[in-house]
Amino acid sequence: MASASSPHRKLLHFLVYWAVQRCRVSESPCRLTVSLKRPAESASPSQLRVSVSDTGVRSKLEEFLELNDLARETPVEKWDGTLLITTTGINDEAIYRYRFNLHEELSSARFTRLATTYKNHATFSGTEVCLCLSNEADADDLILWLVGFFHKILVLRAANLACELFVEQIGNAESRNVCLPQDSDDVHHSVMASSSDRLVSGLKDYALSHGYTCDKCDTCILNRDLLKTGTGAANNIDRRKAKGPHVEVVILIARAASDLSCWTVNCSSTQVLYFEDFVPCPISKSSFDVLVSVDWQSYGFKLKGGFIDDEGNAVLEWDDMPFARVDIAIHTYLECAMQECQGSQQDRHLVRKALNSALSHLKADHAGDFLSCHGQRVREYVPDLAESIAGLILSSNDKAFHDECISLLGLGSDQDISEGLVQSSICEKMIRIIELNDTKENVEDNAPYLFECEKLDEDSHLDEEDRDEDMIFDF
Fold first, then answer.
1. DSSP code of 238?
2. Do 205 and 196 contact (CB within 8 A), yes or no?
């Protein structure tokens, strides 16, 4: 299989990236279309014909000069360095066509302006880039990569952007076309939703469809509500320039494998989806370092290790995974498209902040499921300790003590008090306190108590809020 360093993949990634940025600049709904035509026989001398088009703003020829290095690295037999560019702006009266040959050293031979076509008062804008690539034996792998690449683009559900991918075999009556799902299964998905909400919706569809693999099942697709979701965001906006980096993180947790048995395969690892400026990208080294250095144990995860695979994706491996599946998406982008922003320690800080925020969100909404590893160990002793305390209370012959304990547990004296009921009440209080302590930063300074009651000192001047925190039995 061709690696992420394949020149074909780098070239297509570059062309799609700039097409998406042009669409982002446009204030109108846009369409991104990638078309690939290949010979019916892989050994055919005919080349792969590729077209990347968008309906965004007019392209700038300077964009394609960034392909200089890639053109020099790519052998002529794989790509001759030629791009055919057609572009027009919304206010242009004509459609302009150019030929770029990036393998040419002389600027006069490198750039050629072709015949101009006039729009006859029509109003539209867009760019199409056409090129030919060698029809190698790995063309099937290239197509599979392109399909997966487009599925990841759909995860972001970028506002006002529709995506299409067409793969056609030339010279074969049974041409193959690739159809990608455009609609979300999320009934709450809205055109006005924030980019973070869109990412949540897209990642749910991606995860429930098993990354759009062939082994998906109907049971998973119908269970969106069974996913636990944590979201986090961070930004550093320069208000004077109205721009700055944004980072959004979404974490999805599927329940235990017994609930979704088809997710038991490969549940011990997570391939992190990483996006830059609304396009899937290999993860940056700084972001990967953040992923493996986060205090996962504070949220109940046991990270065994992590690595970057041949595709440039971050893969996290878990130990003793209590969940069926963990999906993570990280998106870094600039508020204004096509503006430069140099990576820095500040960007690393934003990724860490957004990731911790997403984990804290998970813990706040599902405290019992995301106890720290220490909290989980403490919770294991709760049943036995609750049973012992319940036995001590009910075995006492002191009726006043007995009634006071029952009252502190919130059980009415007129109830049929059994040892099981007392034990259950104590157990619930202990677990609540463990979960509360597990979310506090300064537990030692503000530890809660097991039972709440009024303070014995009647002259206390504590207000009502402090009174709620003041309890007699310090467990």
1. B
2. no
| Four-point Cα dihedral 291, 296, 301, 307, nearest 10 | 20
Q: Could you tell me if 425 and 410 are in contact, meaning their C-beta atoms sit under 8 angstroms apart? A: yes
pLDDT tens by residue, 247-279:
999 999 887 654 455 655 557 889 999 999 999
Cα distance between residue 359 and residue 282, in whole Å = 23
Instruction: Please state, in angstroms and rounded to a whole number, the distance separating the CA atoms of residues 327 and 427.
Output: 33
- Both tokens of 462, joined, read 């504590």
SS3 content of the chain, % helix, strand, coil (to 5): 35, 20, 40
Q: Which of 367, 354, 380, 366 is nearest to 440 (CA)?
A: 367
Strand partners, 270: 316
Q: Cα 436 to chain center, whole Å? A: 28
Q: Which two tokens stand for residue 350?
A: 């934003």
- What's the token pair of residue 430? 């202990």
> For 28, left (φ over 0), alpha (ψ -120 to 50), or beta?
beta
DSSP 8-state class, residue 46: P
Please write the tens of the pLDDT for every residue from 107-164: 677 888 999 999 888 889 999 999 998 876 577 888 888 888 998 999 998 888 888 8
